C-alpha cells in the first residue's frame, strides 16, 4: 500500500497493514490518512512516553526504595512501557516511508512482538494493582499475607514469562514481503495462515484482555461499594476520595486505550474472514487504524496515573525537578496508591507494610 489507494483484487494478496488480512473482493482502500496519522501519533507517543517513563524508572530505582507490592507493580508497568516506546522510531520511519521496512525480518518480528508483549503485560500489571487495592480495602488482613513485595516481584516475573511464552507463535506468524522496491512488515501473517492467526489472536485476547478486564471491573465495583458504604461513627477521609479517583483513572485507561483497540480489531478480522462488502470493509478499516494509536497511548497515560494518585510520588518528583535537596529514600509503602493503613476498614498505625501486624485504631473509617 505504498500508493494512495491499495487495490485488493479478486485473488488473495498479502496486506501491508498490522491487523490486515486478505480478502477475496475487488476493493480499493484510500489509506493516505494513515501515512500522516500513524507516524505523527507514534512520534508523539515516543516523546511523551519516554519523557514520562524514563524519569519514573529513575525515581523508583534510586529514590523510592524499598518498594512495597504496589510500587513493585508500578515499576514493572513503567519498565514495560519504556521498552515499548523504544521500538516506536522504527514504526515512525516505516509509515513515514509509506510502508517500507529496511530493517530486516527479524526486527520486524521483534517490534510486532514487543507491541503485544507491552500491551498485555500492561493490562496484567494494572490488574495486579487492582487486585492488591481490592485486598487492601475489602480484606486488609488477607492483604498482609498476599501483598508482600517478594510475592509481588515473583508475580511480575511470572507475568513477563507467561505473556512472552504465549506470544511466541506470533514470531512465526509475522513476516515481511516485497512489492517491487518496497518491503512490507506484516502484523498478521501469510494469506494461507490467516484463519489460524485469527484463532490464535482471539485466544490471546480472551486470556490476556478479557479475563483481566473482568477481574478489574469486579474488583473496582466491590471497592467502590465498600468506599461508598457508610460505616458507623466514621468521617469520610480524603483517602477514600483519592481511592475513588484512582478507580476512575484506571478505568479510563482501559476504556480509552484497550477496549476500542480490541473491539475494532475483532470486528476488522471478522469482516475480512466473512468477506464483507467493500463499503463495510472501508469503514471498519478506517476505524481500526484510528484506534491503533490509542493502544500505544497507554504508555503515556500510565505515568499520569502515578501523578494523579500517588501523593508521595508526586511530591518526590516535584522536589527532584525543583532542584531542592532530596530527602532520604522513603519507604515505597508511603508511595502506594492504596495503603493498607489508610484505605482498609481499620485505621492502621503508621508502620511499613511488611514490618508486622497492624494495630487497629479505636475509630473505623
UniProtKB/TrEMBL annotation:
It is a multi-pass membrane protein. GO terms for cellular component: plasma membrane. Coiled coil: none annotated. One of its GO terms (molecular function) is G protein-coupled purinergic nucleotide receptor activity. GO terms for biological process: transepithelial chloride transport. Keywords: Cell membrane, Disulfide bond, G-protein coupled receptor, Membrane, Receptor, Transducer, Transmembrane, Transmembrane helix. Gene3D superfamilies: Rhodopsin 7-helix transmembrane proteins. InterPro entries: GPCR_Rhodpsn, GPCR_Rhodpsn_7TM, P2Y4. Residues 1-14 have a biased composition (Polar residues). Residues 52-306 form the G-protein coupled receptors family 1 profile domain. SUPFAM superfamilies: Family A G protein-coupled receptor-like. Residues 1-20 are annotated as: Disordered. Its main location: membrane. The chain crosses the membrane at residues 40-61, 73-94, 114-131, 152-174, 194-223, 244-263. This is P2Y purinoceptor 4. It comes from Pteropus vampyrus (Large flying fox).
Amino acid at each position: 500500500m505504498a500508493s494512495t489507494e491499495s487495490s485488493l483484487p479478486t485473488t488473495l494478496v498479502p496486506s501491508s497493514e498490522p491487523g490486515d488480512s486478505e480478502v477475496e473482493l475487488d476493493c480499493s482502500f484510500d489509506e493516505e490518512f494513515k501515512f500522516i496519522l500513524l507516524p505523527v501519533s507514534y512520534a508523539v507517543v515516543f516523546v511523551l512516553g519516554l519523557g514520562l517513563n524514563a524519569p519514573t524508572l529513575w525515581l523508583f530505582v534510586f529514590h523510592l526504595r524499598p518498594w512495597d507490592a504496589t510500587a513493585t507493580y508500578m515499576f514493572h508497568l513503567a519498565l514495560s512501557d519504556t521498552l515499548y516506546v523504544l521500538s516506536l522510531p522504527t514504526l515512525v520511519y516505516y509509515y513515514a516511508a509509506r510502508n517500507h521496512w529496511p530493517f530486516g525480518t527479524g526486527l520486524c518480528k521483534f517490534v510486532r512482538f514487543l507491541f503485544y508483549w507491552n500491551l498485555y503485560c500492561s493490562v496484567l500489571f494494572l490488574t495486579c494493582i487492582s487486585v492488591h487495592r481490592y485486598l487492601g480495602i475489602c480484606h486488609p488482613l488477607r492483604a498482609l499475607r498476599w501483598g508482600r513485595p517478594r510475592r509481588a516481584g515473583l508475580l511480575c516475573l511470572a507475568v513477563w514469562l507467561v505473556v512472552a511464552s504465549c506470544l511466541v507463535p506470533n514470531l512465526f506468524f509475522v513476516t515481511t514481503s516485497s512489492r517491487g522496491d518496497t518491503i512490507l512488515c506484516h502484523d498478521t501473517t501469510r494469506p494461507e495462515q490467516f484463519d489460524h492467526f485469527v484463532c490464535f489472536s482471539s485466544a490471546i485476547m480472551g486470556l490476556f484482555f478479557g479475563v483481566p478486564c473482568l477481574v478489574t471491573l469486579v474488583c473496582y465495583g466491590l471497592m467502590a461499594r465498600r468506599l461508598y458504604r457508610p460505616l458507623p461513627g466514621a468521617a469520610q477521609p480524603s483517602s477514600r476520595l483519592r481511592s475513588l479517583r484512582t478507580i476512575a483513572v484506571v478505568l479510563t485507561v482501559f476504556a480509552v486505550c484497550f477496549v476500542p483497540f480490541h473491539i475494532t480489531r475483532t470486528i476488522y478480522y471478522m469482516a475480512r474472514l466473512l468477506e464483507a462488502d467493500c463499503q463495510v470493509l472501508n469503514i471498519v478499516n478506517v476505524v481500526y487504524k484510528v484506534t491503533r494509536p490509542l493502544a500505544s497511548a497507554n504508555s503515556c497515560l500510565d505515568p499520569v496515573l502515578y501523578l494523579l494518585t500517588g501523593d508521595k510520588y508526586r511530591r518526590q518528583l516535584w522536589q527532584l525537578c525543583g532542584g531542592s535537596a532530596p530527602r532520604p529514600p522513603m519507604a515505597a509503602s508511603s508511595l502506594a496508591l492504596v495503603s493498607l493503613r489508610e484505605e482498609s476498614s481499620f485505621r492502621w498505625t503508621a508502620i511499613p507494610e511488611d514490618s508486622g501486624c497492624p494495630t487497629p485504631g479505636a475509630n473505623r473509617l
